[in-house]
Specification:
The protein is α/β, with parallel strands linked by helices. About 25% of the residues lie in helices and about 30% in strands. The protein has a seven-stranded mixed β-sheet, with no helix packed on it. The chain has a five-stranded parallel β-sheet with strand order 1-4-7-12-15, with no helix packed on it. The longest helix is centred in the first third of the chain and has 19 residues, at about 20-35. The chain is globular and about 50 Å long.
């Protein structure tokens, strides 16, 4: 493993422009293009997902188009549904629990860029993991920022930007997302 990939996976500052990371990105580009074309039978599309992602649980459904940085750092639990237009930037691990509902155009983002303008121009970045607990629902257009964990059974309202960890069993909305109430296992409908 090269120095930049090692630093990236350790959560340290790294330069994303090197041959090893470029090759991994090209692999992702080819697999995403084949998956997003949508013309393959379900078993072949599932095989593409299994090749692209780090792990894919039973019954996972991801609607195209789907975009990611590498794919290999993404783990998706059984029964999870990801709607159209998802963008998962996985320079660090993205872990999604079981039975998660992810609305259209959701972004799970792990990369951070330098605040110092000179270092940012040089291309320095680092990445922090994103973790989504079991039975979470992320409404359409939710953005989850680097280093954030969302606890099990939590609902995040459409269009929210999650900048800090959220506990289990709450409803959070807004920009930045704030907990508005506990859910206490209520049933809707």
């Amino acid at each position: 493993m090269g120095e930049n990939k090692e630093r990236m996976l350790a959560g340290d500052w790294y330069l994303p422009v090197d041959d090893e990371l470029r090759a991994a990105s090209l692999r992702r580009e080819e697999l995403c293009a084949a998956y997003n074309a949508g013309v393959l039978p379900p078993k072949e599309r599932r095989a593409l997902l299994e090749e692209l992602l780090g792990s894919v649980g039973h019954g996972v459904r991801i609607r195209a188009p789907f975009h990611c940085d590498f794919g290999s750092h993404i783990r998706v639990g059984a029964g999870t549904f990801v709607n159209f237009g998802a963008v998962f930037l996985d320079a660090a691990p993205i872990t999604i629990g079981e039975d998660v509902q992810i609305g259209p155009n959701v972004q799970l983002l792990t990369p951070l860029h330098e605040m110092d303008a000179a270092r940012r121009r040089e291309g320095w970045e680092k990445a922090l993991p994103v973790t989504i607990g079991d039975n979470v629902w992320l409404g359409g257009g939710v953005i989850v920022c680097p280093g954030v964990s969302i606890g099990a059974d939590t609902v995040v309202g459409a269009g929210s930007v999650v900048t800090r960890d959220l506990p289990s069993g709450v409803l959070a909305v807004g920009n930045p997302a704030r907990v508005v109430r506990k859910l206490d296992g209520e049933r809707s409908g």
